[in-house]
């Protein structure tokens, strides 16, 4: 009986595995198609200066409209990450985001002496150890003509810590003039002391710290900001949703902030409009960004 029972389970398991693999293959094929047929788009979330809320740059965030239905990146990027498909995705995003910022610069020429907006692109951890990443970035810069210092690559700390190959790639990218940011900082295991030795320019403090009501967490944010500044890094706070959070970040001398309070991720049209000078007395249009969930 036990044996029969066992076999039954194995069959159920087999069946489940087969359909999981089929689903994965189907999703992979759909992602590949989406990269070519316009179903995949980028939205751009503005990043602002904490001090005066002026535009500092953008983060490109991929959006997939699959047969008219929105699929969140947290759902399909993990599928892409199971294979080298994620390299194709990252390459597409890099090409699109650099092209877009270059187009905005052509439309609204930079004001001499004023800092220019940057474009941050998320790079998958898996791609970091792949030599094709360096080529993909070089190709995107060459094709768009974007100055390298306006491109920021966001990487998560989990892959960074002890992967010498990833470190080498990041160093090469930095030598090209591209900036590196650690995304979701605080959720992994990087100690503040390790930052000193990492080829990075910016820390993005994870939303969970920014929104935490716990005074201990807030003290930690203050500490991270001070340490980052000591090592010459700039700091972006992610996920700012309330005025009080922004006020606190200002007191903590945080450099930049990003979050629904400031701007939602915007379609290219609305994001680019922020660069155009606003006539005096006319308030800037409020976001026509993504709907409040
Ligand atoms: P992330 O890089 O940490 O991006 C920030 C996420 O927080 C975005 O979610 C953004 O919409 C969301 N967000 C921004 N402000 C707020 C806020 O005030 N409150 C809340 N609750 N959320 C806020 P999104 O676009 O769903 O992306 C999720 C993750 O998927 C990203 O996290 C990133 O890891 C990944 N991702 C997105 N686009 C790409 C891409 O083009 N390539 C790769 N490799 N990964 C991407
Ligand atoms: Mg990011
Ligand atoms: Mg993040
Ligand atoms: Mg995050």
From TrEMBL:
Residues 24-279 form the EAL domain. This is Diguanylate cyclase (GGDEF) domain-containing protein. The lineage of its organism: Bacteria, Bacillati, Actinomycetota, Actinomycetes, Geodermatophilales.
């Amino acid at each position: 009986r036990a044996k029969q029972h066992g076999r039954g389970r194995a069959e159920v398991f087999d069946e489940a595995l087969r359909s999981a693999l089929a689903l994965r293959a189907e999703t992979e094929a759909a992602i590949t198609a989406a990269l070519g047929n316009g179903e995949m788009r980028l939205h751009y979330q503005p990043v602002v200066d904490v001090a005066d809320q002026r535009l500092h740059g953008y983060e490109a965030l991929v959006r997939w409209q699959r047969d008219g239905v929105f699929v969140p990146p947290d759902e399909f990027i993990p599928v892409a990450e199971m294979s080298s498909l994620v390299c194709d995705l990252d390459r597409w995003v890099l090409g699109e985001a650099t092209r877009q910022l270059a187009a905005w610069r052509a439309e609204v020429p930079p004001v001499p002496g004023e800092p220019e907006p940057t474009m941050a692109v998320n790079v998958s951890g898996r791609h970091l150890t792949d030599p094709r990443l360096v080529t993909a970035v070089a190709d995107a810069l060459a094709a768009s003509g974007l100055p390298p210092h306006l491109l920021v690559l966001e990487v998560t700390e989990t892959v960074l810590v002890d992967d010498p190959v990833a470190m080498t790639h990041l160093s090469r990218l930095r030598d090209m003039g591209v900036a590196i940011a650690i995304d979701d900082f605080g959720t992994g295991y990087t100690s503040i002391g390790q930052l000193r030795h990492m080829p990075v320019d910016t820390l993005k403090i994870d939303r969970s710290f920014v929104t935490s009501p716990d005074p201990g967490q807030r003290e930690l944010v203050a500490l991270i900001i001070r340490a980052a500044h000591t090592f010459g890094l700039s700091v972006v706070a992610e996920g700012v949703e309330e005025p009080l959070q922004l006020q606190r970040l200002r007191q903590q001398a945080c450099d930049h902030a990003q979050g629904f309070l400031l701007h939602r991720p915007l379609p290219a049209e609305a994001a680019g409009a922020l660069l155009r000078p606003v006539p005096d007395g006319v308030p800037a249009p409020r976001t026509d960004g993504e709907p409040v969930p």
